[in-house]
Amino acid sequence: MKETLTKTKHKKFLESLIAGDRPACSAYAHEYLRNNHSVQELYEEVFKASLYDVGKLWEYNQVSVATEHLASAIVEAILNEFYQEIASGDKNDKRIILSCIEEELHQIGIKMISDVFEMNGWYSYFLGANTPTKDLIDYTKVIKPDLIGISMSIYFHMPTLEETLQRIRKEFSDLPVLVGGQAFQHGGKEILEQFDHVYYKADLRSTESFINELTENE
Q: CA–CA separation, 55 vs 65, rounded Å?
């Protein structure tokens, strides 16, 4: 564990996260923003990087499943602390539905993406982890969004993602779909190429650029 922590840029936050110290993590996050860092930097360089490190420590049996779950819960709680600050009051009538695929339980990444859309004036409908495809499709018929966002963290869920995209395309032939998640670090982007209007974005920065492109092309 010491070697991983030493290489981590935000070591103090990661140490507090592993210790389950939510007040210390929250204080670090608020101080980070006060030091003229953006919300996107906080999400990408502190939250995302630290959770990736916790995941690596779990893979090497250096922290328990309980520690990993608590770390995720702390980060998600801090995300909720910032919601009123990041939600744009100036809405542009654009709508996005965001969810994880079925059996996918890691929802923090897609929640951060949801916040980025909110910051850019979109109405974001965040469905969270383990959303059944049928329910996603049914809700899409109700909301009629301009975009669907789907997240997947576990590479072995790739067949489920492919089936989900097939079912979305059957119901909504032209509706753009944004796809991302840690799973794609291990491959799988070629599966997306068989579908029209499906876009892979690796991080918050590329997602925000994508949002700007959508706005410019109107």
A: 9
